[in-house]
Amino acid sequence: MASFRDFLPLAFRWRVTxxxxxxxxxxxxxxHDAPEIQRALANASDFLSHNELGLALExxxxxxxxxxxxxxxxxxxxxxxxxxxxxxxxxxxxxxADAAPDPHFPHxxxxxxxxxxxxxxxxxxxxxxxSISSASxxxxxxxxxxxxxxxxxxxxAGRPDATYMCALTTAVLIATYPHGLIFDFTxxxxxxxxxxxxxxxxxxxxxxxxxxxxxxxxxLGDDCRAAVISxxxxxxxxxxxxxxxxxxFAEAWRYVDESIPA
Length: 262
Hints:
Layout: H1 4-31, H2 35-49, H3 53-66, H4 71-83, H5 87-99, E1 127-134, E2 142-151, H6 159-176, E3 180-189, E4 216-219, H7 225-233, E5 245-246, H8 249-259
Parallel strand pairs: 2-3, 3-4, 4-5
Antiparallel strand pairs: 1-2
């Protein structure tokens, strides 16, 4: 029987895909009122209600065959395909986004804005560091620990914090390609905000881990313990931490270490 941990990557990808498809449907609904489109949106909504995400994506794609969709809408569909690991399809949808004209403004008339320099650190007051250790049964396999320190803003205001944490963690994963991952929330102040859960699926977005499970664990801190447990377990009626959540780094490290093949 599959464990709760085995189900997590699929659950996270489902939620991300659903968000992209919902946003695409809203964009199409706002830009078109033709009866054919309304029927297609109704069909897509029905597919989503039955967790048929692939069929919903196909239904929305068919709208673009007969009606112009904005580049942003095509990109939402591409993101949905990406989160379902349909890479070729996502690439094709991104090409459609590049080719789609803006119906309100001819592309040739778009002025080139003056670029402004941005700093990734400006997204969030949270700071990330990382450490590496060797697995006990195979010194050639490594466990990455990413340490997060700072206050996560509540609700939707915390989206930039989640984006920053995901971006930094993804960069470290690419730089190290570990065989196990620990999210250290010991010094994270988190009260609530749904976007934090996207952090747990960063490994599944990298092609390196397409066919490989990346075992992970979370170290809970005093200023985030209850909220982190509630975010992941509350909607499932669970009051205790999931099996991959721990109060000490040693427990989390042993859990990940035992999950790495010798």
